[in-house]
Design goal:
Protein name: Cytochrome c
Organism: Roseovarius gaetbuli
Helix content: 25-40%
Distance between the termini: 49 Å
CATH topology: Cytochrome Bc1 Complex, Chain D, domain 2
CATH class: Mainly Alpha
Order of helices and strands: HHHHEEH
Number of domains: 1
InterPro entries: Cyt_c-like_dom, Cyt_c-like_dom_sf
Number of strands: 2
Radius of gyration: 16 Å
Pfam families: Cytochrome_CBB3 (PF13442)
GO molecular function: electron transfer activity; heme binding; metal ion binding
CATH architecture: Orthogonal Bundle
Strand order of the largest sheet: 1-2
Shape: globular
């Protein structure tokens, strides 16, 4: 009985994140702490820091709409975890040190490709996907 339980747990741990539950609730908390000051509580790009920024923050609720209706998952992950520099931030993300860094979770992205990133990024992206407006 113990062997079956252990084997089942190992099978779940080895699944790509597309098959695992993403925690958008944790993603929302992360968003509120690290992103809302610039992007706004509603992700529209109208956060309280907007007036002091040289480049206006992106409307994160329109990512899918601005990408032909498909959420650009791989690009968003790479921008948050620092692999794809963002001019608006002045430096590559993460601007909060190593909080978003890590490659401990596998996420299935466009066209079945897999990308490794951190659990914090996976949860944050799950929250951003829920915010998409048509």
């Amino acid at each position: 009985m113990q062997i079956r339980t252990w084997a089942g747990m190992m099978a779940v741990l080895c699944l790509p994140i597309g098959a695992m539950a993403q925690d958008a609730r944790l993603g929302k908390k992360t968003y509120e702490r690290y992103c809302a000051a610039c992007h706004g509580a509603d992700a529209s790009g109208n956060g309280p820091m907007r007036s002091v920024l040289t480049v206006a923050p992106r409307d994160l609720g329109a990512l899918a709409r601005n990408n032909g209706g498909a959420f650009p998952l791989a690009r968003v992950v790479r921008q948050i975890d620092g692999r794809e520099p963002m001019v608006a931030h002045g430096d590559p993300m993460p601007v909060y040190g190593d909080f978003f860094e890590g490659r401990d979770v596998v996420l299935k992205v466009e066209e079945g490709v897999q990308i490794r990133t951190s659990r914090q990024v996976v949860d944050l992206v799950a929250y951003l996907q829920r915010l998409q407006r048509r």
